[in-house]
């Protein structure tokens, strides 16, 4: 099948198997170029390992630290007529590269929120690795079925207490428009916390600890975002921000529980980047486009792989986590530097459809978005017939 991008709103409904594999290979090259991560993790579980920050975490651990990795994700396989989701092809690419490098890699495709998947993964760790020394929690999902009650929770991206109006980027047309978002109502906050808060991270860690598969000195990390004031009504102070507050509460609770195995829990605040999850948030794509331009001009731009490599190499495994007052690792430090924020803040006030390409890196945003689905990568023949039904080796 010849595969081309089919974009519907903020999602691309096709993915290119070879392009995704190339994207993974490029990320691997970034890590290898930097050399081994001293004292890095050796047996790693990544929950949400197929795209975005979780995929890059898996790559950084495997290729920076020769780690055996277990990955959990929720993706759709392809067949002769339909492409798989990008995360499926990313994992095919990752596992092939891992095998070629002699690294253990095993993947689980299923609902990470369920008891069944937790049970299966723990069983596999038990049998194959004995224990894990790093657990990365990187799920981003619009809904979660609570395994105890069966209730389906849905997360929303809404401000709290007031209507929020600001600029946004229509990523289909490239026009800067105004968006008005109505505030959370009913149980929107509780629902969002139930999906994106810390409850499931804690359920995972409790189950892993109870099963005795956490190594002495284990570390666990989950990801958060803070960003500049202009995005606070929709992010930090919005429904998703409440979920992230809950995640931080969980971090403190896990820290206490993990002391039994001399372990440590972290929340890492990461940089705003184009991922499948972030492209769905109003206002954020415009901010990201402005941010990319400012950071590329300053030479400080990073993608998910540079972020995750730096997190492991310079913070978690270098005894230099440099936590902020709330105990969070701030790998968003370059994004939040006053120099960058001054530029972005000034341009935020000025940006419109006409000057978008001068003030912002809309092209970089679009290229980054397409790359998530395996499109626009150098060296990939997009006119060629490709096998869209490739299987993830460890799942076949
Ligand atoms: P993403 O959409 O790229 O990745 C989400 C992952 O979760 C995928 O591997 C997907 O398969 C998996 N997943 C979703 N539902 C699942 C389920 N039910 N069972 C198993 N797997 C499931 O998202 P991302 O942007 O990398 O986000 C990961 C984390 O990083 C989130 O906590 C997010 O808030 C945080 N973060 C993102 C940004 C950003 O700008 N993208 C910035 C800072 C922090």
Automatic annotation (TrEMBL):
Name this protein carries in UniProt: Enoyl-[acyl-carrier-protein] reductase [NADH]
Gene: fabV
HAMAP family given in the database record: FabV_reductase
Catalytic activity: a 2,3-saturated acyl-CoA + NAD(+) = a (2E)-enoyl-CoA + NADH + H(+); a 2,3-saturated acyl-[ACP] + NAD(+) = a (2E)-enoyl-[ACP] + NADH + H(+)
Subunit (UniProt): Monomer.
Superkingdom classification of source: Bacteria
Pathway: Lipid metabolism; fatty acid biosynthesis
Family: Belongs to the TER reductase family.
Binding of NAD(+), residues: 48-53, 74-75, 111-112, 139-140, 244, 273-275
Ranges where the Enoyl reductase FAD binding domain occurs: 324-386
């Amino acid at each position: 099948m010849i595969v081309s991008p089919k974009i519907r709103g903020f999602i691309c409904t096709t993915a290119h198997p070879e392009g995704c594999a190339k994207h993974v290979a490029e990320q691997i090259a970034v890590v290898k170029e930097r050399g081994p991560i001293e004292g890095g993790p050796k047996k790693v579980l990544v929950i949400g390992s197929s795209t975005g920050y979780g995929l890059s975490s898996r790559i950084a651990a495997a290729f920076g630290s020769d780690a055996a990795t277990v990955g959990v994700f929720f993706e759709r396989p392809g067949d002769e007529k339909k492409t798989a989701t990008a995360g499926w092809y990313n994992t095919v690419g990752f596992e092939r590269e891992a095998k070629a490098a002699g690294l253990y890699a095993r993947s689980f495709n299923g609902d990470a929120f369920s008891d069944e998947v937790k049970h299966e993964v723990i069983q596999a760790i038990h049998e194959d690795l004995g224990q894990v020394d790093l657990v990365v929690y990187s799920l981003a999902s619009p809904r979660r079925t609570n395994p105890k009650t069966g209730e389906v929770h849905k997360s929303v991206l809404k401000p709290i207490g007031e209507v929020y109006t600001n600029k946004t980027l229509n990523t289909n047309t490239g026009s800067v428009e105004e968006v008005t978002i109505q505030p959370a109502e009913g149980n929107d906050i509780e629902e969002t916390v139930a999906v994106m808060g810390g409850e499931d991270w804690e359920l995972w860690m409790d189950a892993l600890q109870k099963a005795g598969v956490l190594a002495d000195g284990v570390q666990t990390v989950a990801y958060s975002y803070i960003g500049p004031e202009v995005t606070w009504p929709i992010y930090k102070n919005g429904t998703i921000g409440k979920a992230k507050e809950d995640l931080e509460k969980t971090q403190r609770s896990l820290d206490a529980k993990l002391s039994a195995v001399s372990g440590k829990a972290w929340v890492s605040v990461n940089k705003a980047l184009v991922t499948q999850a972030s492209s769905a948030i109003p206002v954020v794509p415009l901010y990201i486009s402005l941010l990319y331009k400012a950071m590329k001009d300053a030479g400080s731009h990073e993608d998910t792989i540079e972020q995750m490599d730096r997190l492991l190499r310079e913070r978690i495994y270098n005894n230099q986590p440099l936590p902020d007052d709330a105990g969070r690792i701030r790998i968003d430090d370059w994004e939040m530097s006053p120099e960058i924020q001054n530029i972005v803040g000034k341009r935020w006030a000025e940006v419109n459809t006409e000057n978008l390409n001068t003030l912002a890196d809309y092209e970089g945003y679009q290229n980054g978005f397409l790359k998530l689905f395996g499109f626009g990568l150098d060296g990939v023949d997009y006119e060629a017939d490709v096998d869209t039904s490739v299987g993830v080796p460890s799942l076949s």
